[in-house]
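hi! just following up on the protien thing from before. the input was this:
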Amino acid sequence: MNPDLNRLQPYPFEKLNALKAAVTPPENLPHIALSIGEPKHESPSFVKQSLNDNMDKLANYPTTKGLPELNATIGQWLTRRFNLTTGSIDPQRHVIPVNGTREAIFSFAQAAIDRTTGDNPLIVTPNPFYQIYEGAAFLAGAEPHFLPCLEEHNFIPDFDAVSDEIWQRCQLLFLCSPGNPTGAVFDSKTLHQLIALADKHDFIIASDECYSELYFDEQHPPTGLLQACSEIGRDDYSRCVVFHSLSKRSNLPGLRSGFIAGDADILKPFLLYRTYHGCAMPIQHQLASIAAWSDEAHVKLNRDQYRAKFDAVLEILGDDLEVSKPDAGFYLWAKTPISDTDFAQQLFAQQHITVLPGRYIGRTVDGLNPGENRVRMALVAPLEECISAAQRIKEFVNTLQQG
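and the predicted 3d structure came back as:
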């Protein structure tokens, strides 16, 4: 077996299950899960109808490259959403449909890393982070290099503190904007800075933007990496790729539908890799994806529902728990008055609410784990459940203060 498999840590939810198994929650309180980022809003009915109408496509093999109609729809969406130069996206060269961003992010690292350089290649990643970034690095034969996302830098890595030696060894930089778990959004200035660094040190920027459509201000949606390219006239999107998904945007995690877009010279060999990888999206899913990417009304409704939940939960928690509204996304990244693992375990034991300890999605570097003494709370449950959870969390925190 590949010895790098031994370097993979248990997934955060395995650790969480072990933590919860040591206590017994109250049976009289219904369980509320705020631990996993699985959208609970209703999936669009017209997407379900499209799936139903195209089940005869089960008899056809899909192509890895994707239906021309889907690629064209994605290209049009990217151009509208991120104000790209008209015609700069060639759907057949700049877009590849994928089975959700998770599989694409993981497989992209396998194709992007050059093991022959002899200089121990690095994949630079935020910390805390989506654990796929770390696993992708190990299985690609690279080392993850973690950049802490701290409150004093608005949860954006301090890229100025990264040495030239690290950038020179970097072959792939993972970004996550809006961030998981912090909700922090990269601004254009920072993205321009990173593009310049990619040019100077010859690395690829891979921006995970699967939360980009969950934001609060309709007039100021989060900036994307391709948008930053367009702002500086970089219409070939050189060294830049983005990952998008319908899971959060359209409440379709079970559809497993997303795409990668950007530098055509990078996507061409990645497409070749994928033809061997055997990961073509089913045709009926592609047709349903066309319907989803073509409609914004359901996405606006989705944002409205999250706004209502953030407003209600933050009003209830008030000053009892140190937490604030993120830039975007659907997570709260709350400070805990006790250790994050104790907080999560005792909250489950007393209130039957599950949250994710921050240390489980961070790594300790130079004695610091940026996730310690924080918990991630996903406001994915219905509004009434989120309100009930907030009230029970408030009650729990008050018992800690009294103690």
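The CA atoms of residues 204 and 239 lie 5 Å apart.
The chain has 15 helices and twelve strands.
cheers
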